[in-house]
Amino acid sequence: MNAMMQIRPILAALKSHRAAVTLLVLEIALTMAVLGNLVFIVHDGIRRAHTPTGVAENQIGFIQSIGVIGAKSASTTAGDLAALRGVPGVEAAAYGGPPLWYVERDAAFAHVDRLHRVARIYEFEGSRGLSKTLGLHVVEGRDFERSEVPVMGQMDEHTQFPVLVTRALAQRLFPDGSALGQLFYDGNATLRVIGVVDHLRGRITGHEDDDYSAVIEYGVGKGHMGGGFIIRSRPEQLDSVLKQAAIALSKADPQHVQNRVMTFEQMREHYFRSDLAVGRMLLAIVLILMIVTTLGVTGLANFWVQQRRRQIGMRRALGATRGDILRYFQLENFLIVSGGVLLGAICTYGLNLFLMHRFELPQLPPIYLLVGAAVLWGLSQLAVFGPALRASRVPPVVATRSA
Amino acid sequence: MLGYYMDLALRSLRRHKMLAALMVLAIALGIGASITMLTVLHNLSGDPLPQRSGVLFHPQVDPRPKDLPGADAEPPDDLTWVDAQNLFHLPGSYPRVLMDGNWLPARAMRGDSLLAMQSDRATTADFFSMFDVPFVYGSGWTAQDDAQHARVVVLSSALNDKLFGGADSVGKQMVIATKTFRVIGVIGPWHPQPRFYDINNDDGPYGKAADMYLPFFTWIDLPQDYGYGSMRCWGNDANAGQHNPKAPQCTWAQLWVQLDSPAQVASYRSALRQYSLQQHELGRFERAPNVRLRGLLDWLDYKRVIPVMVRMQTWIAFGVFLICMLNTIGLMVAKFLRKSGEIGVRRALGASRRDVFAQCLVEAGVIGVAGGLCGLPLAWLGLWMVRQQPVSFAASAHLDLSMLGAALALSLVAALLAGVWPSLRAARVTPALQVKSL
């Protein structure tokens, strides 16, 4: 007996259970829609949590050291940096903020009249050596040279700042050619592109403009600033070196208040922790849904088997094997779930459209439909197996008894 | 009759334990998921100051240039330095409070007390009375202190514990941003959620209340450059206010007024319009008067403070609930039709369709209440999970009595609704056919 020949009687039998079949199809469809979108949201979150920022993440540590305004102090930022560089294990140190911290955001203009903003960019400003400390990859042009960097206290409104920009920003600002040597403008300064780095993301939101960044270096001169200090070390000794560096910095600059000391990886964890927590919640809901749907399928299948004991007995008496009965219920289930999955594909896209519209979610890739369908097929086959097995054990003699 | 049906329902459930358990579990899971999210939503959208929210208002004016690319019709949330002063000194006897918040380095006077950054709220005398802030020790300051830029400070209990070991610290001295301040009060726990009076600050609308309260005009004169709270500037230089709160294109100060009657609201609104008109005529405001005077709850509504994720999770929870209901309907059809024989006998013995319908519905109700009862521990577990989320609003996720009631009511109503159609079908069972096959 081939499968096609089995399908027709199944369909005929399902017609007499129209209502229950409709319910099951609806339930499968809705489950698929919610499940598909939930898994998508979770996966999107995970993908974001693993997006690299473009810096040498496992090698850098951060010390927030806040200067107290009005306090008398003999320290200078240059002295602070020298103290940091003097700590054994510190390979580089700079004044400035790392990604995912409070990076300044400014407008970028292609023209000096500043009438049309081209993009909003992240400006990583810091002392000489910032780009080396962050471990950026210059893919075009060159890194900063010591002599060209302007020095604090010797700048005015005509100062041109040499900058590194990300590839994404270079393409946004200068779509028609190389960005090298070109000028652009932020809110109050003129910037000249000397090099292009592959990536540097100020924040990770999933938007394209995360990667619109510029790096500006300056000499700290005799200035004394508070804020962020970044050190770079070998990954395996970063923890201990960072602690030593924080101690050295507070010795060099006792007037500063150290508010935060953490490795970049701790910072990243902190940045994404609420996303990950939400992901866990959603996964719990996914699990609940899968349980509920499986239970529902089992319950209905049990009922059907119960109701059809006599018919099953008759089929067995007429020569159907146990395997035939088992396959009958499995195939029946497969057909119902297939109906649900077809409707579910439409619902999934519908729900995705709604979420895109309302919560700015990205579009769901079609692969989710396939995976969702496969999961539902598998789950409901699992759910129906028990009742089907029971059906196959109905002895032929049942046919001869009245119900 | 109801008691008899109840008895029948329990009997029937006991007979088909498996099916009954499945139905109860489906409802319980659905109730658990949706009550969890509803509770979070309920807590987040609650009234932060129930006794006062009716009389607190948030004035806004529009000092932006006429043609600002990308500007919408709504005036900025906060005030510029100039408007903050002008509106604060607007004539009239309404209680009013001007404020902002940031972090300042502070320590106790003792030699061993280390400087640390503490959150502060720079505000004016009426803050404590207008917002019903409870005092443990001492009291707030006076309007005269405001005018004289007095160096006085009110601490949170948490900071008082840290700096003074929880003792009555009134009269003690401490250092804030290199200046010496005198502690004049310590407040009890006070964390209105959402933190309605300043929802644009770094830590968002569910951020904590501050640890130090100091007079606004004293604060603005302090030697400081630690950021100025919810600083927002229009024009090309987005960072114009970073080191200069007095930059004319930057808004950051919040003003709240207390208006006790509709007449006062109307008169304040016209005063606000009058002020805008006057500034417009002076040439300071380029736009025609564009003012708002929202009440506290309107303000929260307008700012849509509820996090996107929470709103989305609420929708999802309802999707889950719907699926659980569909599931229950399917199982109920199976359950009721399974006892077709029994129903046939009842019908043959004279029960009307309505009787059968009522009997089935009572059974559905029993299932619903059982599902609700089992759902409560699940909701409790769900909320425990929410509280583990490291987000600022998580701590407020607790089941209260009204949500417990809502959970039970929701499960009962849902089960009854789910039971209608299966019961109708059961009531349509033809007695003759069933009795014959017995």
Descriptive notes:
The complex is a heterodimer of chains A (403) and B (438). By secondary structure, chain A is an alpha+beta fold. Chain A folds into two domains: 3-50 and 271-400, no CATH class; 68-255, no CATH class. Chain A is built from ten helices and eleven strands. Chain A has helices spanning 3-15, 18-49, 77-85, 130-134, 167-173, 238-252, 264-307, 309-317, 322-359, 367-392; strands spanning 60-66, 92-95, 104-109, 117-127, 138-141, 160-166, 183-185, 190-197, 213-218, 227-232, 257-263. In chain A, the strands form two sheets. In chain A, strands 3, 4, 5, 6, 7, 8 and 9 form a seven-stranded mixed beta sheet that branches. A four-stranded antiparallel beta sheet of chain A has the order 2-10-1-11. In chain A, helix 1 (3-15) crosses helix 9 and helix 3 (77-85) packs antiparallel against helix 6 (238-252). The two termini of chain A are 29 Å apart. Chain B is α+β, with helices and mostly antiparallel strands and 438 residues long. Chain B is 48% helix and 15% strand. Chain B has 14 helices and twelve strands. Chain B has helices at 2-15, 17-44, 81-88, 127-130, 143-147, 157-164, 216-221, 262-282, 296-303, 308-338, 340-348, 353-388, 401-427, 431-437, and strands at residues 56-60, 96-108, 116-123, 135-138, 152-156, 173-176, 179-187, 212-215, 232-233, 250-251, 254-258, 292-295. In chain B, the strands form two sheets. Chain B has a six-stranded mixed beta barrel with strand order 2-3-8-5-7-6. In chain B, strands 9-10 form a two-stranded antiparallel sheet. In chain B, helix 2 packs across helix 12, helix 2 (17-44) crosses helix 13 and helix 10 (308-338) runs parallel beside helix 13. The two termini of chain B are 27 Å apart. The chains are: A alpha+beta (403), B alpha+beta (438). At the A-B interface, helix 2, strand 3, helix 7 and helix 9 of A face helix 2, helix 10 and helix 12 of B.
List its salient traits:
heterodimer; A: 403 residues; alpha+beta; 2 domains; seven-stranded mixed sheet; 11 strands; B: 438 residues; 12 strands; 15% strand; transmembrane helix (chain B); Macrolide_Exporter_MacB (chain B); ABC3_permease_C (chain B); transmembrane (chain B); ABC transporter ATP-binding protein (chain B)
